[in-house]
Amino acid sequence: MLIKNIEQRIKINKIVSLSAIGFAIFIVIAGFFFSYRMIQDSRKSIYVLDNGVPVLAKQTDVLLNRPVEYKAQIELFHRLFFTLAPDDAYIKENIQKSLYLIDDSGKKEYTNLREKGFYNQIVASSSMVSIHADSITLNMEQNKFKFFGKQMITRKSSVITRKLVTEGFFEDIIRSPNNPHGVLLKNWRIIDNEELSNQTKNSY
Description:
By secondary structure, the protein is an alpha+beta fold. It has 2 domains: 1-58, no CATH class; 62-200, Nuclear Transport Factor 2, Chain: A (Roll), CATH 3.10.450. It is built from 5 helices and 7 strands; from the N terminus they run H-E-E-H-H-H-H-E-E-E-E-E. The protein has helices spanning 2-43, 62-82, 88-99, 104-115, 118-124; strands at residues 45-50, 53-58, 128-139, 144-154, 158-172, 183-192, 195-200. The strands form 2 sheets. Strands 3, 4, 5, 6 and 7 form a 5-stranded antiparallel beta sheet that branches. A two-stranded antiparallel ribbon has the order 1-2. The chain is rod-shaped and about 115 Å long. The N and C termini lie far apart (124 Å). The chain crosses the membrane at residues 12-36. This is Bacteroides conjugative transposon TraK protein.
């Protein structure tokens, strides 16, 4: 009888010990899990200084904002590439900034326009060139975009409005000061640049 009591106590102690060890392991794992979750949540919270006052701001999922960044990059490239003034230095500066956002297809189009004398005409006629983006469509499966807009060429005596439709592809790259969105446009081409109107300015 005594031996049986001792064996039962040993079994009970063993069960209690194993239960305690299992519970301790569970507590440790749960602690690591909740700590990890807290660290992840804290990384999504950032503080922005507003006139020296820290304001809590929540970081959103990068993937949710990516299509917005793609469109912003496409609009930025077209604005830099097609916003021109009768100033060689200004044209070169804008073109140089735009070429950081695109592969060699941008350089090829720039060379093509330069060889046609487009930039010389801008300077010689004291023209201003600007664009207006109507819409940008994205095909996320093919990483393809299409830009729809208008190009305005303002001269001393007239204002020429041309349709501007381009297309190409986009690719994620590392962000840099020259490419803050981390997007590279590829295989870009102009598919429609027909003249829509040519309005003569009133001279008084």
